[in-house]
Structure formats: C-alpha cells, structure tokens
Design brief:
This protein is an alpha/beta fold. It is built from ten helices and 16 strands.
Amino acid sequence: MKPKITIYSLGGTIAMSNESNQQGVAPRLTADDLVKAIPQLNDHAEIETNSFLKLASANLTFKHLIELAHEIEQSIARGKQGFVITQGTDTIEETAFALQLICQIKGINQCPIVITGAMRNPTQVSADGSANLLAATIIASSQESNYRGVLVAFNDQIHLPQYISKTHASALDTFSSAPYANCGAIIENQVKYFMPAHLPPLKLDQTLADDLTTMGDEIDIPILKPGIAESPSLIEMVTDSGAVGVILEAAGAGHISVPWATAIKACAEKMPVILASRAKGYLPQNTYGYEGAEIDLLSHGLISAGMLSPLKARVLLAILTSSKNKMSLNQIKTHFKAFE
C-alpha cells in the first residue's frame, strides 16, 4: 500500500507564472497544478493537495508556519504519513529551521516533512521545480525518513535545516550545507541517507506550544552587521526601540571594533544579544583575547550562536522570546548550547 502524502503549496518560484499584460512572474499555480504536471508522483504515494498560500517567500511569517504546523498535526491524526511543502527559495533556510523547532515543540516529528522549491519558474526552459517536487515526494514517502523531522530537498540532495543556506541568487545548486554535510541524496529514485536520524537535543518547554499562537506577523529582533569603520549608533537606536533581542553578525570568529564592543555590552545588559558570524562555520569561544573579540564579548553576557547562522539564530531567539513567562538569559543560553 502506498503511503498517504499531503503536498502543501505556499507559493514561490515553483508556483509562478505570468500573464500576457504582466512583466515578470508571480505566484499563481495551485498545489493541484504542480501535481498534475508530474504523473510520476502517483507511483510513490497516494497524494492529497492543499493550496495553503500563494506568496513570495519573503512574505512568509512565523504565524503562517505555526498555522501550517497545526494543519500537519491534524493531518497526522487523520492518518497522513508524510508531507511535502513547496515554497520560494529566498527564505527556505529560515522557514525550514523555524518549522523544525515548531514541530519539535508540538511533538510531531515522527512523520517526514520535506520542503522544496525551484530556482527556475515553470515558464523557463529546464525548470527544476518538477524534479525537486518528485524528489521531495520520494523522500516523504520513505520509511527511512521517519523521525528525522523537517528536511530540505533540492537538486537531489537532502539537507538538515540547521545547516542549509542559500549561496547563490540564481544557480540550481544554490543550496549547501557547507562547511557541514548534507544528510542524504536521491540516487536512482531511491533515498540514501549518509547519517542516522538525529535532531538537536532541545529541551524546549512544551508550554511554548501555546505561546507560539500569540506570535505576531512581525518580530522585532534586528540583525546588526557592522562593516569596517562603521559607527555603533545603530546599537543605540535598537536599544531604545523596544526590540526583544539583537543578533550581532560579527566578522570572522565573532569580532567587532572597540566602539561597537562598548555599545553592544551595554545593550546586552538590557536584552539578549546573540553573537554570530558573517562567515560560515562554528563560532570559536576561546581563541582571541583582545577587546571586541569573542572571549571579551561572551564574558560580558553575549550568547554564542555556535554553528547557527545569524538568520537561524534570529529564528531560535524569536521562538524562545515568544514565551509568556519571560526566559532568563541562562535559559536562553541553554537552548543555544544545543547548537554548539
């Protein structure tokens, strides 16, 4: 018996088309439209479709993802065994990680949830959406994918949300898990995993599940990325703006100028400040000892993002600060330690 899969379409390039009087493409195609274009999908699963949204991915919010997770939870209760989500690629690295955290909080990681999209819209030659959707369906239909949480399928590669990033504005192989590794691949229409199922050991309070429903459409956690010889005046503006936290996208191993260090330490006394790097890789904690380097900043209350990119650090902090019972700095730090 073929597994029962639901395909949710949220919009994005994979679902875009144009009209004769329009310049450029926009999200118009439904989940049914996408599925009808690929009859091979029915070889792998019994498919249900749901045209959940029709948005460019920059317009997706935490609220949308929480509503989607609720839909998935209800579908699991009705006997669905896997899920595919199509969306725009611009924000996949954020939405996939956010959905992973939300599903962990809700305790619905038993069934595979696979996110995919396209770099070329359906009006272009060699559009990649159909191949990506087929791969995602094969992954979601495989029992090997159970208990792996949310996955991202692109260009026949399978990625974990905490690692993936979009590295190119238009290339088909834009998604990469470097400097870490993708967790699997599609080879001859078969799922091959290179590592065992593993989710970060987050001890997220289940009461957060109720708190998530109160998250608004906008979350005030700015990402500050200082360039060379840049004034720290932005920090002062953020401190006085009512922000719930700050992500500091520092250079290299987590380094900023002395003026920025002075200002960000004062900011960290008022709100959580996460120290991340604009470079890829794990953020060191005990290498550089000068003022404005990681040892100095972490000793003054900043929290290491570990291996999380600035965008993912912001997603995690947004979810943690959604709690009605305000988390202490130490509690927030404990959750970020899961990614060290």
